[in-house]
Amino acid sequence: MATRKPSSKSPKKRQLPKRYLDFQKQYPDVFKAYDALGNATQAAGPLDPKTRALVKLSMAIGSAMEGGVHSHTRRALEAGCSAEEIRHAVLLGTTTLGFPTMMKAMSWVDDVIKKQ
Questions:
Q1: Which of 16, 22, 39, 72 has an alpha carbon 20 to 30 Å from 7's alpha carbon atom?
Q2: Secondary structure of residue 27 in the 3-state scheme
Q3: How far apart are CA 46 and CA 106, in angstroms?
Q4: How many whole angstroms separate alpha carbon 61 and alpha carbon 70?
């Protein structure tokens, strides 16, 4: 069964959410296919890991997915993004998503960054 592992650059081992682990156990074939798709999309283009991480974080912010923002903030840090780079990516959403949405996302990002 495939499992995502933290990047070797990860400062500490990432704790995966129980819901994610339960899904992996309950539907191993679906999880395997999903994991393979994720790996394939990461490798399909020219973007470097930091850029990919910031793009994924931005999509989670635009979708207003708090759990996704937390997860992709951790992944961005693991990919080598600095807290300043991550916060800048959030700030760029001000004119696209609106100030309140940016502020909400900044608080979610800070939830993770402040634990580092």
A1: 22
A2: coil
A3: 28
A4: 10
**Count of beta carbons in the 10 Å neighbourhood of residue 105:** 27
Digitized pLDDT (tens) for each residue of the chain, 116 residues in all: 344 443 434 345 567 789 989 999 999 999 999 999 999 999 999 999 999 999 999 999 999 999 999 999 999 999 999 999 999 999 999 999 999 999 999 999 999 999 98
Q: How far is CA 39 from CA 25, 45, 82, in A?
A: 19, 11, 23
What does the alpha-carbon distance between residue 49 and residue 55 come to, in Å, rounded to a whole number?
10
Instruction: Round to whole Å and give the CA distance between 103 and 116.
Output: 20
The two structure tokens encoding residue 64: 């207003």
The DSSP result for 36-99, as a single string, is HHHHHHHHSSS--HHHHHHHHHHHHHHTT-HHHHHHHHHHHHHTT--HHHHHHHHHTTHHHH-H
Report the amino acid identity of residue 71: S
